[in-house]
Amino acid sequence: MTTVTHDGGQDETSPHPAGGATDPQKLLSPVLSAHWDEPDSYTLAGYRRHGGYRALGKALAMDPDDLIAYVKDAGLRGRGGAGFPTGMKWQFIPQGDGKPHYLVVNADESEPGTCKDIPLLFANPHSLIEGIVIACHAIRSSHAFIYLRGEVVPVLRRLHLAVREAYEAGYLGPDALGPGKGLELTVHAGAGAYICGEETALLDSLEGRRGQPRLRPPFPAVAGLYACPTVVNNVESIASVPALVDKGKDWFRSLALGSDKSPGFTLYSLSGHVARPGQYEAPLGITLRQLLDMSGGMRPGHRLKFWTPGGSSTPLLTDEHLDVPLDYEGVGNAGSMLGTKALQCFDETTCVVRAVTRWTEFYAHESCGKCTPCREGTYWLVQLMRDIEAGKATSADLDKIADIADNINGKSFCALGDGAASPIFSSLKYFRDEYEAHLAGRGCPFDPEKSTAWADGPNSAHLEVNA
Amino acid sequence: MTNVEMGIPEMPAPDYPAEVRERLEADAREIIARYPGSRSALLPLLHLVQSEEGHVTRTGQRFCAEMLELTTAEVNAVATFYSMYRRKASGDYQVGVCTNTLCAVMGGDAIYASLREHLGVGDGETTEDGKITLEHVECNAACDFAPVVMVNWEFFDNQTPDSARALVDDLRAGREVAPTRGAPLCTFKQTARLLAGFPDERPDAVDASGSAGPASLAGLRLAKGESTPGVVAPRGAASDEEGK
């Protein structure tokens, strides 16, 4: 068996039952990504060649309520970070209320480290469109929106093409959901604001306003877009629906390496100081050790120091957590959150204080300013973190950042502030020594050059993988 | 009374020339028709006016306000919230270096410092020839291709200081530049028109650069048994053999 860390020669035998299995052909389960290596995977022809839009016929033949129950029974949970059951979200939409219903797909992928929806939309946009049509049948919606972050023009191009193809093929348009039951789909490009990934800020932004979160309740299911019942789902959640419907809920439930409360296939994104960064589609519950073992581990000669399970807003984990099943329950029990499955891996060359300072600057920049604890607290954190990184702070400042983070956490309308607190809390928990070393040594003890992708010369992993 | 600069454009703003106004109105009506509520068209309309002048001018804001029956204050409040709307004249190519944590650590900070020195500009500043505006950007959802540089929001993956300097030199010399993922570069104004919701009319633009980048295919290739697990692991051939 290959190993994860590469300089210590320690025994890497895993205590997790599946932890020893590293055969990628058995462990990985490409579904959404199964045909990305074909030159026309993003076109309608490429999608249909592998059964694309087959699930749609099956779904449209079902009663909408039965379809919602089916997705609920399958156990599909939101892939945008929170893991809320998708079918339950659909069920919350009041029916027979005489108001229009809307489906809004959150394609504002901006959580630092998260990089799954953008390659998915680039290589396979029709899986999302088919999922949208199915979801709109379920919630009885005749107008859906894709809110795509603006900074990804290549993806926008492919969405424009895919939507045009779907209209021309009749999957969208006047009779998309049956005779006289039309469906419109609008692709909407955002304009650069992390906060618009928060669902109520996204809705305000889609209404042409500053993207600032709304007070809840009312929830979007009752008063969402234009104050009408609205489902907001992540790209990957909706794109997973066609395969689920096509292959069946039993098949979907059978894909689980960890908790049976977290079934299904999903995209894990490996990045950072790993030998082979990229997208790895596997059943929920795979471990980081398994993913690293099969993909060549950390970059040669280095060892894992800390990682995020699902973006910078999820508390950091360390090499103690290599065998944590990467599902909602497993990561939750380890004191973090599955989040977006953005596995940012940093090796021993990386200064954790530098990493956290940079994330803190991000949260301060992206705080929308609506809630005082987040707006002011993230500003203060940046000042203190910069001083700590430069070795100009005192040990009392370490308590102060913990106190400020505590005063942000849970005290604002949305989770941005909670996300800002996560790296502070978790880095202090696991790496307080390193903070203190900055203070004692009056500066940062790390050489940033050693962390770069080119630090180890032309044989460093990324250059080789992409050559 | 002191003269405090609030960053609010002086009003009333001049209108566009009649020919421009007529053309933009037709575009604006098409955008507005996509939405059940007209105000939803504000973000695309701001992209549209940016495609006309390269940044959001007071004339552009007045145009948006008139098309949507909003006040210019309401438009200004939105235009200044979002980072993609430029508030001053800028270059043909917006070069954005990701300096969020992962890219920064992997070399984004070094790339950014190198470009600042090479171009002689600071953050958000434009080279004297009007070609390049340099800025640092936040995470752009391409961490498996780190460090990443964006030019007019097309992806330049796995960059180094050398490759990034060569990139800006090519742009300034007018040589054709193709991104790692995305279509051959067009100007910032043309990009803004795409963002307003008007598809790229260039033949083959949508097909450029293939279905997926190499990192996007890493797991798929492994699952299909196409690449050897552990090939870049340091423990040599022994672990590679076991990995199979």
Automatic annotation (TrEMBL), chain B:
Instruction: Look up keyword Metal-binding and say if it applies.
Output: yes
Q: Which Enzyme Commission number(s) are listed?
A: 1.6.5.11
Q: Which intervals of the chain are annotated as region Disordered?
A: 219-244
What keywords does the record list, in alphabetical order?
A: 2Fe-2S, Iron, Iron-sulfur, Metal-binding, Oxidoreductase
Q: Which cofactor does it need?
A: [2Fe-2S] cluster
Q: Which InterPro entries does this chain map to?
A: NuoE-like (IPR002023), NuoE_dom (IPR042128), NuoE_N (IPR041921), Thioredoxin-like_sf (IPR036249)
Q: What class of enzyme is it?
A: oxidoreductase
According to the UniProt entry, its GO molecular function terms are: oxidoreductase activity
Which SUPFAM superfamilies has this protein been placed in?
Thioredoxin-like
Q: What is this protein called?
A: NADH-quinone oxidoreductase subunit NuoE
Organism, per UniProt? Streptomyces spirodelae
* Gene from which the chain derives: nuoE
